[in-house]
Amino acid sequence: MGLKAGIFAAVLTMAGSAWALDDPQTKLADPMESGMWDYHQIDILGDPADIRFDDRVVVRGPVEAEDSLNVPLLVDASAIPDVKRIVVSADYGPIPHILTYYPETAEAKIALRFKIDQATAIRASVETHDGSWHVGSTYIDAAGGGCTAPAHAYASDDWEEHLGEVRGRLWAASGRARFIVDHPMDTGLADGIPVFIIEDLALETDAGVKLARIELSEPVNEDPAFTLYFAPGTLPASLHVRGRDNNGNEIDGLISQGSLN
Amino acid sequence: MTLTRRRTLGLLGASALAPASGFASPRLAYALVPIEIGDGVWMVEGSTDYFSMQNGGAIVNVTLLRGDSGLIVVDSGPSLRYGEALKTMALGLDIRGVSAVVNTHHHPDHFFGNQVFRDVPIHALGATQAAAFADGEAFADNMYRLLGDWMRGTEVVPPTAVVAGGDLVIDGRMFAALPLSGHTAADLALVDRATGNLIAGDLVFFNRAPTTPSADLDAWRASLDVLADTEASAIVPGHGPYDTVGASVAQTRAYLDWLEATLRQGARDGLGMVELMDLDPPAEFAGMGAMPQEFHRTVAHLYPGIETEILPLGN
Questions:
Q1: Contact B277 A62 (CB under 8 A)
Q2: Second label for B80, Cα 20 to 30 Å away, from A166, A246, B148, B200?
Q3: Is the dihedral of CA B222, B224, B228, B231 positive or negative?
Q4: CB contact under 8 A, B312 and A259
Q5: Res B22 pLDDT > 50
Q6: Which positions in chain A touch B312 (Cβ < 8 Å)?
Q7: Number of H helices and number of E strands within chain A?
Q8: How many domains does chain A have?
Q9: Residue B101: which CATH number?
Q10: CB neighbours of A92 closer than 8 A, spacing ≥ 6?
Q11: Residue at A71 is within a domain
């Protein structure tokens, strides 16, 4: 009898631990009902207890991805005070993490492009400095294949000469900084092409103060393109775009309020 | 067999009960209606919407012209099933059926009906043939995704007979062939000598937003200059209604000009692609078929290149 009760208890415990492995400690009702969110909440965000879906995190993209290698996204969490970082991810795709944005002195808002591999929910998970998480979502339909195609750069044989080129500009009146960095951003998923990506980018002052920074993963598009948003009138005359790729190449460009081509 | 099928299609097309009423259809069917636009010339007008399960991808204009031994079909539609319906419809216009096909360019809605016409010459520019081989399978993947069962059995059959510019005789009918580009890398426009109709392919859209997945805007505008000089009596645009006053060429040009100006200004203002897509098209374009979807698609096609051109290099 005692033995039976013991086995019963052990089975209960195993069932209990299995349940704990699958479910996050704070289980949310996913407005996208995509089936992968629980897993990413644990795996990408580290299973925070203080987390909710929050309409103040606005994630906007096209209804359908016209070019699966260049899907535009606008994430706006500026309605949330005291943002520490914004984690942008795709529920379905071989590499879910797209980027993490640390706004530092900038607004909690970023425009980016990424590669999509199939129709999926896209998330922006916003962590505030007190450790609470606020998640916004959108859904983008796609023909797919964006992560497994070789970079366009290899169609030209001079891609290495352009590697790390920075194009961009500052718009002080509207507080915008927009820049594009020339880089193949190889995911490692195309046959015979190893991972080759920019891992870190930051906007820095002449004195080296990082005004905002981005940690990039493989799904960020080839030639990453970002708009970062600052309070109008606060940008200096010029800023450095600095970063590094996983092969140790340094990126260093200067964007200013100068003339356009 | 053919008669039964024609009869069925005719009944479906004529019946007010058929598709709109929500009755379950036993088989997806295209109801193609020929519009006579000249002596021995007909046009089948496509929907001005984007590809959908409702329209089965029948968004393209098809022109049929009487030749010495049958009908010359310009552009063959988006699917095997469309090609079959077109073949059946052609038999109703001319008992000898289709004697030749022309593809104006390599986009799938213009050549995926080719499969049905394998036994006759399928004419196109050389670069169109090459592009159909290169891109056809990828187009097919996307068309099956967008249109599902409408695409059943459709295989990619690229054009078989390469034509050049100048005087062109197909099945005894005389055309002026204009080898142009801009909508794609190779766009063939035809002027029918007998009736003066200009069959413009997708160089010209009318009351339907132009598409730009393979576009070169400068080349496109140069081609519109050529088309404006043809002094055609009327124009069959690639998409949209028959144009008897020549307004479609000017409208297409105005749209392309607006597109380019809008994208360039966006780049000068530091806009991201989502912010650009938020812009409201002016009233003259907002009411076009497939708006704002086509504008959104264009942002994806053309903005990255324009932006790279406009933003200054910082290292």
A1: yes
A2: B200
A3: positive
A4: yes
A5: no
A6: 167-169, 258-261
A7: 3, 16
A8: 1
A9: 3.60.15.10
A10: A34, A36, A117, A118, A119, A120, A121
A11: yes
